[in-house]
Each structure stands twice: as structure tokens, then as C-alpha cells.
Amino acid sequence: MYNLQQRANVLLSYALTALSCVLGVIALISAIKGYPAVDNNITIDNNLVRIVKRRYGPENYDYGQPKSDFARVAFDLDADFTPFFDWNTKQIFVTVIAEYETKTHNRNSIVLWDRIITRKDDAKLSLKKVSNKYALIDVSRKWTSQQANLSLHWDITPHVGILQGGRSSMSSANFILAPAEASS
After folding, report:
1. Region of residue 84 (phi > 0: left; psi between -120 and 50: alpha; otherwise: beta)
2. Where does the pLDDT of residue 92 fall: very low under 50, low under 70, confident under 90, or very high at 90 and above?
3. 64 or 127: which carries more pLDDT confidence?
4. Is 104 exposed, middle or buried (0-12, 13-18, 19+ CB in 10 A)?
5. CA distances from 181 to 44, 70, 129, 142 (A)
6. What is the DSSP letter of 135?
7. Cα–Cα 20 to 30 A to 75, which of 7, 106, 150, 169?
8. What gap in Å lies between CA 42 and CA 127, rounded to an integer?
9. Does domain 34-177 have CATH number 1.10.730?
């Protein structure tokens, strides 16, 4: 009555339907459960904030103008992401972002540093005097005494389900981006 192809098709269809239902339940449980808050602390030494004038950024990208102001910042970071790792966590993408306001733009956000955490053993971050990995440069290419804040952001990539993220509240890592005084 049924040939081999029809029986294989029925079996494969049933297996894929069952697998889809199981993965849907896993995604729903992960979305409902959520993730706990992160204990984190970002501190910055204002003596380690330097403004330099040069053409190339820290990532050796040519910014085209010989007189761009780049900020070099060193910060300390303590954060524990171990509670985020469970049976459905694939990786956590962590970023430190500098946020400030100017007269022309109400909100400016620049990624200074990032890391991908793939194992629970590496989820406890205790970093000292980390310098920014990416260029801290304003759209105007000049700093005019802006007050900036550092905040920690994260995105959790699950094996199955939706991407979830979060951020720390505005931290106490405030610093001033003053105009450059001399070329370096």
C-alpha cells in the first residue's frame, strides 16, 4: 500500500514536527525565565584619560585629517556573568560604552571595548587598567570638555530562542574629555 519513500516522508515529517515543538518550548521557557541582574563595577582613573592629536586611530584606521582628537581611556572592570550560563546559553557579548552629550547631538554612544564569553569558566571578569580597544573620537573631531559616563552592556545568545540583552545602570565611571593641549 505505501512504498518506502512515503514511509520515510511520514517518519521525517513527524520527527521534524516533534523537534520543532521541543525547540519552541525551550525558546518559550528561556524567554519567560529571563536572566538575573549582573553585579558589576566600572571605575576609571581620571589621571589616565589622555587626549592626543593624530591622524590614525588606535586600530590603525586612517581618519583622513591630521588634527583629530582621540581619547585614550583606561578603566577597571569587575563583573560576574556566571549566573547567565545555563543549559541554553551559547555565548555572551560584553561591551563597555562611553556615553556623552554635545550641543549638536543629545546622545552619543561609542563602543570602547568588547569581549565574547563562551565558557562559564571565563565569565568572571576582573580587569585592571584596560585601555580602549576602539577609537574614542567625536563627530566634530575635537573634544570640548564633554562629561562622559561608562556603562556595561551585554547580549546573551542562546542555543535556541531570542537574543536577550541588558545594561548596567549609569555607573560612577564619569570622566571629562577635555581639548588636547599638545600633539603626541
Report:
1. alpha
2. very high
3. 127
4. exposed
5. 21, 12, 23, 11
6. -
7. 106
8. 10
9. no
Please report, for the chain, the start and end positions of each structural domain, with discontinuous segments joined by +.
1-33, 34-177
Identify the residue whose cell numbers are 525558546: 27
User: What would the grid cell of residue 19 be?
Assistant: 523537534
Q: How far apart are the first and last CA of the chain?
A: 84
Exposed/middle/buried for residue 178 (C-beta within 10 Å: 0-12, 13-18, 19+): middle
The CB-side HSE value for 57 (13 A sphere, CA atoms) comes to: 15
Residue 9: what are its φ and ψ, rounded to 5°?
-65, -45
What's at 163, amino acid-wise?
Answer: L
Q: What is the mean pLDDT of the chain?
A: 82
d(CA 161, CA 34): 11
Please give the single-letter amino acid code of residue 119.
R
Written as nine digits, the cell of 5 is 519513500
Cell 582621540 belongs to 70
